[in-house]
Amino acid sequence: MSTVESMKAREILDSRGNPTLQVEVELSDGTIGRAAVPSGASTGKYEAVELRDSGSRFNGLGVLRAVNNVNEDIAAAIVGMSATEQAAIDRRLTELDGTANKSRLGANAILGTSLAVAHAAANLAHTPLYHHLGRASTYTLPVPMMNILNGGKHAANSTDFQEFMVVPAGASSFRHALQMGTEVYHCLTEVLKDKGLNTNVGDEGGFAPSLSSNKQAIEAVLSAIEKAGYKPGRDCFIALDPAASEFYKDGRYTLAKEGASLNTNEMVNYYVNWTSSYPIISLEDGLAEDDWDGWQLLTQRLGSKIQLVGDDLYTTNVNR
Fold first, then answer.
1. Sheet-wide strand order for 260-262
2. Can you tell me the distance from the alpha carbon of 5 to that of 27, in angstroms, rounded to the nearest whole number?
3. β-pair type (307-309, 280-284)
4. Distances in whole angstroms, Cα of residue 196 to Cα of each of 186, 189, 211, 225, 282
5. Is the dihedral of CA 94, 96, 97, 100 positive or negative?
6. Which pTM was predicted?
7. Do residues 223 and 278 lie in contact, with contact meaning Cβ atoms separated by under 8 Å?
8. Residue 157: what pLDDT?
9. Could you count the other beta carbons within 10 Å of the beta carbon of residue 53?
10. Which residues of the chain have pLDDT under 50?
11. Quick one: how far is CA 45 from the chain centroid?
């Protein structure tokens, strides 16, 4: 058994150039584990609190408060615990924070610590992190869902919907799926150029052209699939993450690009019509995080036909 000897948090920059937290854990035998905390541009209001500093430094996005919480409160509670007892570590962190949404210590401080300990324990066992956590004899990689066209908060002046993804579910292996998705991505460059559209990218790496409608976006992706030599609905499919909470206000869904204001029933019908017309197999955050009646209707209409994902809806919160 190796215990947590020390831990140190520091402020680093993420891929968007914004501050985030990195935690480094050293075990009693000298093994090191490090983890950096990811951050999203679009977050649901019920998500665990990502503790930021406010003020003028880094436009208020600094994380020195979270860093200090790791280096003082969390370190005092975790040092001396067994690094191989991940559940006990996580339980201790949750109890130490004591809030329902991790607002005292910060979800970033808690997650960074938990991940760093997990990495240290995996390094201690000389095994990859996935094997340390999974402990299975065989593994199946998921079908990748590649965000190749960005809108919403991920790209200004693009589409109302936040993400249009290509899903190479017809691939024979993960390696093949990765190849297919990459080929479609590069073909999308040509499709957009042929239409006289820009090929700038959004902050998640997908293209962010100025389009007149969400329909134009999905049809551009379908054209890219065909241009890459694949058949939509057999080789490659479409996944959507509209992030509907971002365009939901006063009980209506406002699709600015289309000049439409829809009630819940109309928004559900919108998706039903799209899934009948296009090879869509997954819909994430199709309705707003507080539209519980709408989610019931959406599940009744589409739950047996496609994958429905609640991100802003559930925010990994057990009660929700």
1. 248-249, 252-255, 260-262
2. 5
3. parallel
4. 16, 11, 11, 19, 29
5. positive
6. 0.87
7. no
8. 65
9. 18
10. none
11. 15
Three-class DSSP labels, the chain: CCEEEEEEEEEEECCCCCEEEEEEEEECCCCEEEEECCCCCCCCCCCCCCCCCCCCHHHHCCCHHHHHHHHHHHHHHHCCCECCCHHHHHHHHHHHHCCCCCCCCCHHHHHHHHHHHHHHHHHHCCCCHHHHHHCCCCCCCCCCCEEEEECHHHCCCCCCCCEEEEECCCCCCHHHHHHHHHHHHHHHHHHHHHCCCCCCECCCCCECCCCCCHHHHHHHHHHHHHHCCCCECCCEEEEEECCHHHHEECCEEEEHHHCEEECHHHHHHHHHHHHHHCCEEEEECCCCCCCHHHHHHHHHHHCCCCEEECCCCCCCCCCC
Closest CA to 112 of 66, 153, 180: 66
How far, CA to CA in Å, does 84 sit from each of 9, 111, 125, 179, 289?
20, 16, 9, 37, 36
CA 150 to CA 259: how far, in whole Å?
Answer: 19
Q: Which residues contact 68 (CB under 8 A, 6 or more apart)?
A: none
Judge contact between 151 and 256, C-beta under 8 A: no
> 69, 93, 81: which is closest to 121 by C-alpha?
81
Q: Tokens 């991505």 identify what position?
A: 185
What number of CA atoms fall less than 13 Å from residue 149's CA on the CB side? 37
**CA–CA dist 1, 85 (Å, integer):** 10
User: Do 188 and 221 form a contact (C-beta atoms < 8 A)?
Assistant: yes
| Dihedral angle, C-alpha 71, 76, 81, 87, nearest 10 ° | -70
Question: Side-chain half-sphere of 171: how many Cα atoms within 13 Å?
Answer: 22
The structure tokens 């019509």 sit at: 273
